Amino acid sequence: MNPAAAIVRFTAFAGVDMDEIEELKTLAGPMKRYARGETIQAEGDPATDCYLLLDGWTASNITFADGTRQMLKVHLPGDVLGMPSLALTHSVDTIRALTPVAVRSMPVRSFGRMFESNPRLAALLFLIAQEERVNLIDRIAAIGGLPAIGRVAALLLQIHARLKRSDPGVGDCFELPLAQFDIAELVGITTVHTNRVFQQLREDGIASWSRKEVRFLDKERLRELAGLPPRLLRRDPSWLPRKSEAPGQKLRA
Amino acid sequence: MNPAAAIVRFTAFAGVDMDEIEELKTLAGPMKRYARGETIQAEGDPATDCYLLLDGWTASNITFADGTRQMLKVHLPGDVLGMPSLALTHSVDTIRALTPVAVRSMPVRSFGRMFESNPRLAALLFLIAQEERVNLIDRIAAIGGLPAIGRVAALLLQIHARLKRSDPGVGDCFELPLAQFDIAELVGITTVHTNRVFQQLREDGIASWSRKEVRFLDKERLRELAGLPPRLLRRDPSWLPRKSEAPGQKLRA
DNA sequence: CGTGCACTTGACAGCTGTCAATGCCGGTGG
DNA sequence: CCACCGGCATTGACAGCTGTCAAGTGCACG
Prior knowledge:
- 2 copies of one chain form a homodimer.
- By secondary structure, the first copy, chain A, is of the alpha+beta class.
- Chain A has 8 helices and 13 strands.
- Chain A has helices at residues 8-11, 18-27, 108-117, 119-145, 148-166, 180-187, 191-203, 219-226; strands at 16-17, 31-34, 39-41, 49-55, 58-63, 69-75, 80-81, 94-97, 101-107, 173-175, 207-210, 213-216, 251-252.
- In chain A, helix 4 runs antiparallel to helix 5 (148-166).
- The interface between A and B is large, with 67 and 67 residues.
- Chain A binds a DNA duplex through helix 7.
């Protein structure tokens, strides 16, 4: 609901002024709400729209021929959903609401307009896509290279970092509206094993989890388990196109 | 060396005319060659440039604190290297030559110019980034959700599909300039186990590998092992910005 | 013809998955 | 207010996939 949250991903790379916020708004369609568990986009659907997540958490997952699912990512407010599928004829992933959510659809047509009318916003969107690639890369590293406990550690740290990006006030204790089997599906292990991993994290005084609430007890050791450094976003890249017209606006963020 | 190969990724989504090819060329710096094993970009370096891979194969990998490596992707001619790191202050991955390679650097500054001067090329680059996200997503699915043999199957199919994209003549037998430990690192298993997987693939008459050459014996079962359908790129998305000036040029691809 | 690197193979351990049962908690309806 | 119920978390026993270690083989290259 926090209006700023909806554009965090854009303002993360550079200031965005009021004009641009207005322009972003014109790109998006009306707001739509989904209840927990509802599907926002299904695998195999033609990829016609993207969605700006305004409020709530969603997950995107992919389904194997045998019905097994692999969760790819959880989305937080401000994330743009469905962009990867723009490259394909059919959507790759199924996006569903983990909590009650509010989204605004972003018709692909408006992407074309944005590239023509506002190169700077287009470049920011491009950077968001690259940031997502880094997220996926880190996930691959974790899943491919770490034992179960490290995968969970990496996941928790990644989500925490992303939460903190839109709300710097988030501390070492935060709400995580996922079930243990969601986490299992995200890091590619079973629910049972996930449970054992959390028990060990608690025993070792590294992190605890109860009632959908995670508490980091020893972030240092959590990072050791994850084995990768935190990622720092590049602020104000020098190559970004400049704001085109209407000077003198107050910058946001 | 095939000049067309260098721009496959752009022409995959829509026709690109001579003007645009020229414009792409102006974006890139001089050609540079690397020997097998050389590092093109190192983790932690400031992310200043991207590279257009003209010829040869490269790999990008990420290193954990304990020195373990996870390979993320192999790059084929036409791929743009180093884009994800544009979102960060420091490069995420190390890119090294798997074979002798030729690249042209693409200074980031030229990205900004392209977004301003040619929205259509910028949008194509945006689509390339989304396609890469799909590749990463499929890799995550394979690594997170499949046993070793399925991961290898998925990898072989993915590489084959990408090869075929720039050279439709590629058949069910193709060169794969990787060592078994490269494949191991790519799919997150050990060399020893990779070896056993290949033995089983051959025993079962599914695929064989020798002398850096892969042969698909039963593509149907290979796909079953991978568990995911092939991905079809979206051709000529209706929302793409149109070519701006200089009409009447012959379209390429 | 020797050397080195990569590929193979075998034995074994350990992480993780599977199956099945139990416990916990919040929500719902009587 | 209480009993029931369903979803999720937890536990134990066990199997199996995959990793580790170590040795041996084969091929390419000098």
